[in-house]
Amino acid sequence: MADTTWPELYFVRHGETDWNAEGRYQGARDIPLNARGRGQAALNGTLLAELLARSGRAPGDFSWYVSPLGRTRETMNLVRSRLAAPLPEVAIDPRLIEISFGVHEGRLHHELVGEMAIAGERDASFWQFRPPEGESYADVAARIRDFRTRLTGPSIIVSHGGILRILRHLIEGLSHERAVNWFPPQDSVVHFIDGKSAVYPAGQSWDD
User: Fold this and answer.
1) Mean of pLDDT over the chain
2) CATH number of domain containing 132
């Protein structure tokens, strides 16, 4: 069931890294953006500016939050470079860090077939799966519920794909199976409002 007590959110996943491109489990490792990822982040900033203008909103109408990892902070800086000043301060919140894959971080997805199902091939039980020294989606959902207590109004978040999956479950009521198998885009802005989400791909015009 959707949790409509969440405020309005605009969510941007960080841009691509070399590990994303190589199909490696990245998790909480601090891997930087690559050139394509920086381009995605800038385009997402242009799109966010357009979406805010379309709705008659200003950046200062929102609180801004980012994961502490370098790829999200660089994405945030590139997003904000496309918005007109004045811009509010950004709060770094460790609860927004990506799910940890523990000992599997750095390994290629295809190397772990049989140990960790890849997205598109997971069943509902994967929500509870915790790799050695890592976290389950259920673990991360608990810290995202705790992060929710910090939110007092509309917010803009730059974070990770796993966090976006969890938000779709918490806010929209997406089932565990659908959430863990959904592919979070790196070239889009996701808008959550009234228990629903809309995904806006960058590089397109969304003017009415």
Assistant:
1) 94
2) 3.40.50.1240
> DSSP for 102-127?
GGGTTSBGGGGTTTSPPTTS--GGGG
Q: Residue 201's beta-bridge partner residues?
A: 188
Whether pLDDT at 1 is above 80? no
Domain total in the chain? 1
Domain boundaries, position 166? 9-201
CA distance 111 to 106: 11
Give domain status of residue 3, yes or no: no
What is the pLDDT, as a whole number, of residue 175? 97
Check if 135 is active-site: no
Active site residue 98: yes
The catalytically annotated residue of 16, 50, 74, 98 is 98
pLDDT digit string, tens, across residues 124-165 = 999 999 999 999 999 999 999 999 999 999 999 999 999 999
